[in-house]
Amino acid sequence: MADVHVTAVCGSLREASTTRAALERVLEAAERGGATTELLDLREFELPTFDADRDREDAGDAEELATRLREADAIVLGSPMYHGSYSSPLKTALDYCGFDEFRDKTVGLLAVSGGAFPVTALEHMRSVCRALNAWVIPHEAAVPNSHSAIEDGAFVDEKLEERVATLGRRAVQYATIEPDPDSFQSDQNVGAEGK
């Protein structure tokens, strides 16, 4: 698995982001599994609100983001749960991508919530990934009650930390899976062609 490259995308813009801390744990586990890793922190990208009439090359750092996602063997998306879904920075980043970045790619999902289990954020990210014909890892990681689950960037609960680390191991394990057939959702996603 030495040739596997895992890229995580942090959909939180907070300075002291628990989503970022959790993704760092995912990537540590992926590195221990033999992969090279990269964290794409959306705070470092200029991504204007998506406009279908604007070419990606003319949309700030959208082309750079898409290029780095294309180069990954597996992608892990991480987001805080906002209003029952995932964050708008992550939505904007994904809107600049299409089949070229996600088709047949292994994708892991992680959601963080200040309150209860962030099920709907995970479901919404899964739906987007399936529409882009990605192969979504069945194991997903959720960090509920994040302000007490992670303190000073470290997990308090070992079982929760292990669940998050497992996502990193699965990203490496399934990075070269060959999914078949295309998803029903992707067949209907005409907007994802030729991004």
UniProtKB/TrEMBL annotation:
InterPro entries: Flavoprotein-like_sf (IPR029039), FMN_Rdtase-like_dom (IPR005025), NAD(P)H-dep_reductase (IPR050712). One of its GO terms (cellular component) is cytosol. Pfam families: FMN_red. GO terms for molecular function: FMN binding; oxidoreductase activity. Its cofactor is [4Fe-4S] cluster. SUPFAM superfamilies: Flavoproteins (SSF52218). It comes from the Archaea. Residues 5-147 form the NADPH-dependent FMN reductase-like domain. Gene3D superfamilies: 3.40.50.360. Belongs to the SsuE family. Isf subfamily. This is NADPH-dependent FMN reductase. It comes from Haloterrigena turkmenica (strain ATCC 51198 / DSM 5511 / JCM 9101 / NCIMB 13204 / VKM B-1734 / 4k).
